Amino acid sequence: MDFARVELSAEDQVFLDETRAFIATHVTDEVRRRDRQTGENFDEQVHLALGGAGYLAADWRSESDGGFSPVRRRIFQLEIARAHTPWYHWGTTSVVARLVQQFGAPRLCEEVLPGVLSGEIRLCLGYTEPEGGSDVATCKTRAVRDGSAWIINGAKMFTSNAQNARYVFLLTNTDPRGSKHKNLTMFLVPLDSAGVEIRPLRTVDGDRTNIVYYSDVRVDDRYRIGEVNAGWTVMRSALDAEHGTGEREDHGLQDVATMAGHGVLMAEAVDTVAAIASQPDRDGRRRLDDASVKHRLGRSFARVEAALSTPTMFGRVAIGQTMRDISPDLMDILGAAAALPTDTEGSADDGVTDYLFRLALPTGIYGGTLEVFRNMIAQHALGLGRPRYG
Ligand SMILES: Cc1cc2nc3c(=O)[nH]c(=O)nc-3n(C[C@H](O)[C@H](O)[C@H](O)COP(=O)(O)OP(=O)(O)OC[C@H]3O[C@@H](n4cnc5c(N)ncnc54)[C@H](O)[C@@H]3O)c2cc1C
């Protein structure tokens, strides 16, 4: 790993200054407060502003296609993370838009891609089902051919941001008698279709997600993404992006691991606790003078540094596991008032550690649980073979 500092050219420095100022104008305290309250991880005004200023298009396109250079992409992504921009929905939108471009009909690309880049069209993921999400290929949501269209029936669990999206990238089963992985087909289903019902669902950390029901939803064949029964091939690219197992470029400027943004939040929380623990109380005593506090804070710093330096799938597990392990320690150091959420009088840290503690649980679930990632590492990275249960 190369820890060298990147010297910015004068033009890139201007880009950094302008981007930081632009984000500060749009991602205000009010936006962040609303995001904590709604748990949506999305803000339409911010998204449209970034689209209107060309940031979404530049982030989505490759450099050769007019997008950001690697340095500017890094600057943009770091500034977005540092401002705590509600950002999750761009992740799903940009990944799915790439698959539409790669596997979708030209007419569908024309219908969808310009709106994605302007920010008006957002795309969400419909993989997980009520009976289980880790083994997505067991999908039961049915799509049955009906002339030039398909009729879809089923239910999807945890379709995050469906309430803000125009389409869902939907995994369906098109051949229940076919063999696993060879009976799946992907669609980009317009969420305003008759028969789609979106019901809100709130998770333990306060996130808003949804359960979505599909009852005789009629979708034209032009919304199919990839060949019939070849959905697994299409979906693999999306899963690789989500799992952080996709190809890495050799300029070294990409995030070390997926979920690095969560790592930034975690690092900020440890800094916050260290700053509070260094303050003397009315009697001149500091929490930091207690050897056990020093030990636990030191251990948290070391764990965070190790997690932030751990690459790819390993890094994703390291970030999720570290967040679960250190957040109780951080809350304990600050005492009972650390359990009070943001904007609450008497909170020890304006809810920073309380939020980290609650975020740690879903961070080890969405996009694949920590257990499933550990199996993938064992099987694919370490070559230890398939796990055997029972
Ligand atoms: C906040 C949030 C947002 C989400 N957003 C989306 C979204 O936008 N779109 C979407 O499609 N899904 C989404 N998900 C779903 C997420 O991807 C699934 O929750 C996840 O894949 C796990 O599936 P499951 O919850 O059905 O658990 P299950 O698969 O039922 O697993 C239950 C338990 O069994 C363990 N387990 C399962 N299989 C194995 C195995 N092979 N080896 C070892 N242990 C195993 C798991 O680790 C877990 O502890 C979201 C989830 C959350 C919490």
Topology:
Elements: H1 10-26, H2 29-38, H3 44-52, H4 55-60, H5 70-82, H6 88-103, H7 106-118, E1 123-126, E2 142-146, E3 149-156, E4 167-173, E5 184-190, E6 196-202, E7 208-220, E8 224-225, H8 231-243, H9 260-277, H10 291-308, H11 312-334, H12 352-363, H13 370-381
Parallel strand pairs: 1-4
Antiparallel strand pairs: 2-3, 3-7, 4-5, 5-8, 6-7
The chain binds flavin-adenine dinucleotide.
Domain Acyl-CoA oxidase/dehydrogenase middle: 124-210
GO cellular component, one term: plasma membrane
Domain Acyl-CoA dehydrogenase/oxidase N-terminal: 10-120
Largest sheet: 4 strands, mixed
CATH superfamily of the largest domain: Butyryl-CoA Dehydrogenase, subunit A, domain 3
Query: How many individual domains?
Result: 3
Radius of gyration: 22 Å
CATH class of the largest domain: Mainly Alpha
- Broad shape: globular
Order of helices and strands: HHHHHHHEEEEEEEEHHHHHH
Q: What is the overall number of helices?
A: 13
Question: Structural class, from helix and strand content?
Answer: alpha+beta
Small molecules held by this entry: flavin-adenine dinucleotide
The CATH topology of the largest domain corresponds to Butyryl-CoA Dehydrogenase, subunit A, domain 3
**Average residue-wise pLDDT:** 94
Domain Acyl-CoA dehydrogenase/oxidase N-terminal: 10-120
Domain Acyl-CoA oxidase/dehydrogenase middle: 124-210
GO cellular component, one term: plasma membrane
InterPro entries: Acyl-CoA_Oxase/DH_mid-dom (IPR006091), Acyl-CoA_Oxase/DH_mid-dom_sf (IPR046373), AcylCo_DH-like_C (IPR036250), AcylCoA_DH/ox_N (IPR013786), AcylCoA_DH/ox_N_sf (IPR037069), AcylCoA_DH/oxidase_NM_dom_sf (IPR009100), Mycobact_Acyl-CoA_DH (IPR052161)
